[in-house]
Amino acid sequence: MAIFAKSHVPQFSMDVYQNEYLPEGGREVNAIVTVTATGGGTVGSPLAPVYPRGHGPSAAVAIMVDCSGSMDYPPTKMRGARDATAAAVDALRDGTHFAVIDGTHVAKEVYPGGGRLAVADATTREQARQALRRLSAGGGTAIGTWLRLADRLLNSADVSIRHGILLTDGRNEHESPQDLRATLEACAGRFTCDARGVGTDWEVKEVTGIASALLGTADIVADPAGLAADFTRMMETAMGKEVADVSLRVWTPVGTKIRFVKQVAPAVEDLTGRRGEAGPRAGDYPTGSWGDESRDYHLCVEVPPAGLGQEMLAARVSLVVPQPDGSAQNLGAQGLVRAVWTDDMTASTSINPQVAHYTGQAELAQAIQQGLDLRKAGDFDGATAKLGRAVQLANASGNADTAKLLAKVVDVVDAATGTVRLKTKVAEADEMTLETRSTKTVRVKK
To answer: What is the spatial distance between Cα 405 and Cα 435, in angstroms, rounded to a whole number?
Structure first.
């Protein structure tokens, strides 16, 4: 008989990388905070426990499938969406609550219906597969209605992890951008959501904006044949999450100001504007759900000026999760960011390798976005300059995946200097893939 540990909750640890030395009058402190969770359940991790059937953290998942009229052009899109949703349902762990939503200009429950969630087992999986056969294309696109229905269904269950998977092939034409924004604000913090665009007729900034607001991932599946494998991977990752609503809590002393808090690996995500106040001089920055994984954050703090030889604690970083009574449980990991003023020029001017690397990765993401926007606007000189800088940064940091995507949009003359020429013809799928994946980063080369 197999023996399973009583608890699969991951253990969190935190490491801080910084150059704490500042010159006389120096006020800006930068640090990379690496947060690692081990012993959790993310599928594929060598440390992941193997759950017996029906065991694991309580979870609810809503799958939102675009069924607008354009999903029939070509018909492989609708077929691929049905197959992908069936594959995702197959990947559900026994005991997981789930629902499938048909998304057009309105949102409809496909399975189980009646404003409730099904509980995954062999019977409900088969029933869901049968229900998916009835999915057909017709109607418009109002993504906010899909998300609001998902929110209602997911929050009807008393579970610890709530997750959405959203697939669309078109633009959100049947509701205003303000309506979608209001929906995302209402759903933020209530569930996480991965978003996928199939084909090439959807709006990249719309899909990445949904994933960003709901702390999920975004990607393109240009060929509908790739949907089933992608949905399976997404669901397996969702099934590996162990702890929801984890926040970075940053405390700073009097006179200190936080300039920004950004996730910088595995992708760039600015968390600065999402701060929630957490008592005197402390703020919480949401990071979403965690399984067995590691992420990096860039913290930039402005400190009050101090004299040579003085030192201070610039920030204290910890991890917390909310409790039912409104309090927060500390997950035990802590990192300290320090500032020390010195007249040693060598010490105060050296840049920590991790800080330098991720500053470059954030600039890389920005350069790609700006370059593609300028290209669309017809400013080809500006686009060449920005995308050339992106090639240079990708080359210097060893970001091979992004370098390959850039090479489909520009001809690289010299990667080291960022000398490039815009390609005259670029496949729409290649440009959209570069834009969608522009924020993905690589970690520091050891």
So the answer is: 9
Reported as half-sphere exposure (CB side, CA atoms, 13 A), residue 112 has a value of: 17
Contacts 24+ apart (CB under 8 A), 71-75: 71/137, 71/169, 72/137, 72/138
Strands (E), 238-310: 243-251, 257-265, 269-270, 276-277, 282-290, 293-302
pLDDT (tens digit per residue) in 138-172:
999 999 999 999 999 999 999 999 999 999 999 99
Could you give the CA distance from residue 83 to residue 307 in angstroms, rounded to a whole number?
Answer: 65
- Among residues 188, 127, 146, 151, which one has the least CA distance to residue 61? 151
Q: What is the mean pLDDT of the chain?
A: 93
Question: Model pTM greater than 0.90?
Answer: yes
What does the pLDDT look like over 265-287, one tens digit per residue?
999 999 999 999 998 999 999 99
Examine the pLDDT at 51 and tell me if it is beyond 60.
no
Is the separation of the CB atoms in 394 and 402 below 8 Å? yes
CA atoms within 13 A on the CB side of 152: 14
The Cα diameter of the chain in Å comes to: 73
225 has pLDDT over 50: yes
Structural contact between residues 275 and 286, judged by C-beta atoms closer than 8 angstroms = no
CA distance 392 to 324: 49
